[in-house]
Amino acid sequence: MKSSVEDLAIFGGVPAFNEKLHVGRPNIGNRERLLKRINQLLDSKWLTNGGPFEQEFEQRVATYLGVRHCISICSGTVALEIAIRASGLKGEVIVPSFTFIATAHALQWQEITPVFCDIDPRTHTLDPVKVERMITPRTTGIVGVHLWGRSCEIKALTDIANRHRLKLLFDAAHAFGCSYEGRLIGNFGDAEVFSFHATKFFNTFEGGAIVTNDDALASAVRLMRNFGFSGYDKVISIGTNGKMNEISAAMGLTGLESLEDFIAVNYRNYKCYQHELADLPGVRLFPHDETERGNYQYITLEIDESLTQLSRDRLMQVLWAENILARRYFYPGCHRMEPYRSSSSHAAQSLPETEKVAERVLCLPTGMSVTSTDIAVICRIIRAALQGSEAVNRRLENRAARA
Ligand SMILES: Cc1ncc(COP(=O)(O)O)c(C=O)c1O
Predict the structure, then answer these.
(1) Ligand 1 nearest-atom number relative to CA 199
(2) What is the pTM of this model?
C-alpha cells in the first residue's frame, strides 16, 4: 500500500494497478443465460423489428417500474430526441448545463434552444427557484436530469410545469432502479428516459427506453421509433429508426435478472469509499439519499482545493498514473461546449453553482469488477496525495518548468 508521495507512480513508483480501472466497466450478468438467449435469437433469425426479446424486455421493465408503457430504444440519446419530439417541445426548453452533453444535443438537434439553468449544489439537480425565473413566452418545457441517480425536486418542478402549462420530461439516464418518495423513477413528468449504455450499471450494450403513463404519448413514441409505420406499407407520420435490436434486449433481460446483485455491489462499494475517505478535509463524497431506493452507480467526489491544497485536476493526474481512470464528469458543463459556448457566451454568469461544481467533481471506479481491496488502495493513494499536497505541487511545478 502506498503511503507517501515517493511511492506515487506519477513520480516513478510502480502503478498500483496493472490493468486500467475504468469508472464504468460493464456489468454482464449471467453469461450462460445470455449466451442461451443469443443462440435462441440466432436460431430464430429474428434479429430486430419488434422481436420476442424486445417485447419481453419492455414488459419486464414496465412491470418492474410500475409504469404503463415502456418503449425500448436503440440509445438513451435517441430516446431523448424522440421523447422531446413526441411531447411537442419547441422554442426554448429549460435544462441543466451540468449534465452529459446528450441532454442538450437532443434538443438542439431539433433546433430547440436549450436554456441552461443552474443547479442546487447540494443535490446537483435543477434549482426549481431558478427554473421559474428562466421561463419566457418561448418556453415550452423543462427537462430535469436525475444526476448520479439522485432524483430532481420532482414535486416543485411538476408544480412549476403545471402552473406555466409546460411539458416536463426527465432525463433518467442515471436513475434506473432509483425512487422518489418511495415510487420508482419512470413514473414522473410526461415521460422519463433511461440510458442502458455499456457504462451504466445496467446495460444493453447500447440502448435506452422511454417510459410513460400517458397512453397517447406512448403511441406517438412507438410510431416515431419505427419510421411512422402503423402497419405494412402504411406510414402515418414522420419517424426515425430508434428500435432496440434483439441482442440488446437479450442483454437487458439477462441484466434485469442480476439487477439486485449489481445494486448490492455498488452499495457495498459506496459504503467502503465512505469509510475510507471519512475525515479527509476538503473531500466530499456526494451523498446518495439512503431513505430512497438507489442504484449507487456513481462514486462522485467533490474536491475543495481551498482545503485540500491540491487541485482536482492534479489529483486526477496522480490517479491516472496509477491506472485509476477517474473522470471529471460533466466538466466543463454544456454551456462551455460547442455549439452552446458560441451561441450563449454569457451563460456562465447565470450558472455560478454549475461552474463551481464542474471544477470540483471527480468520479471514481465502481461496479462488479471493483473490490473492497481495490477501493482501499485507491483511497490510500488519494490520502497520500492530499497529505503530501505541498510536495506533489512542488514536484509537478518543477516538472512543468523543466518541460
Ligand atoms: C445524463 C445522460 N443523459 C443522456 C445520456 C445518453 O445516453 P446514451 O449514451 O445511451 O445515448 C447519458 C449517457 O450516456 C447521460 O449520462
Answers:
(1) 14
(2) 0.97
